[in-house]
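Homework help board

Subject: predicted structure for assignment chain

Our instructor gave us this sequence and asked us to write out the predicted structure in token form, then describe one feature. I got the tokens but I'm not sure how to describe them. Can anyone check?
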Amino acid sequence: MSLYGVMRTGVSGMAAQSNKLSTVSDNIANVNTTGYKRASTEFSSLILKSGAGNYDSGAVETHVRYAISDSGHTQFTTSTTDLAVQGNGFFVVSNATNTQQFLTRAGSFVPDSQGNLVNASGYYLLGQPGLVTNFSQNSLAGMQIVNIAQVSQVPVPSTAGTLTTGNLDPKAAVIAGPPGPASYSSKSSIVAYNNIGQAVTLDVYMSHTATAAGLDTWQVQVYDSATGTSLAPATTFTFDTTAVGKGALAAASLTGLTVTVPGGAALAMDLSNLTQVGSDFSFRATVNGSVPAAIDKVDVDEAGHVTAILKNGQQLTLYTLMLADVASPDNLTPEPGNVYSTNMNSGNAQIANAGTSGLGTVQSGALEESNVDLADELTSMIEAQRGFTANSKSFQTGGDLLDVVVNLKR
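My token output:
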């Protein structure tokens, strides 16, 4: 046995306990860091070959491990862009230029001055533009920074309308010729939107044109209220007035009409709910389309669809967030800013839609807390302190014995 060996073993032990104390200190410092994963120091022995009658002390080496696959508790917030992964998987983030991609569980995203979603560490959230389903890829390439500011002021032209309730008065006098501003039985108006989001009022004129046994005939024509011009020829509708028909449109009758909105698109009106029963005239219709509007709020569903809800009620799916996973998450390489990069031990990143391919779902309005247990860390701190002190004693004892050997010559 060498006294120098005893001292070197003591130094090795003190260095190992220092490493353990370093991971404990880091864990305690990040106990409130969103998405932080606990680090731990594992010890392994280095044994020197010894003879039958003597023992050569070896050393101890340390390996740092990260509990990346262990989820932290979920903390709920009031921000819809605070995101957490429920289950397996990581958000994909990048630097500001999207030249380096990383994985993270830290989902505290807020829009920057340009509308890009960025977390507290300065990493930008990535996703696939639009509504994307059944997507998978063995690379992080091709994803874009999620931006929620570029959809403001988007007009939607009217293309479809539906008559919710409508009735034509059977007592209306019969009028010859197509309906129009100069001659009609009933009139209503609907508001549609052209290609640039301007509201256009359309006047709907209706005339009772014929009465026959079991069938009544009406004509409907749509005019531009601003100019008084017809937008399409009159459309004829026939109603079954028998006991069986109960005033509904006849089987052979048309059930809709199509007009072109001035400055806009073709508008198809579904009038299949139109009736002619013994009641007053009524006409209530709904039409799609909207004026330009800014974003009111942003929602993210469990499938990762980022949807902008505009102030006019319109909803637009802007991006689909993809989740990433690797074969061995605990072997990912930690990088500054609470993100991870892949390496040979972790395996390559695979991305897919949330809720598919064994991946978890996205929880909006929530954050994943650090998985550090403060009580465990304080216990480990005491263990490291005691271990360091004990190793220092073996080093000191070896030094004292070496002094005795040196003094034998005196």
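Reply (TA_rk): Your tokens look well-formed. For the description, you could write something like this. The chain has a mean pLDDT of 90. That's the kind of observation they're looking for.
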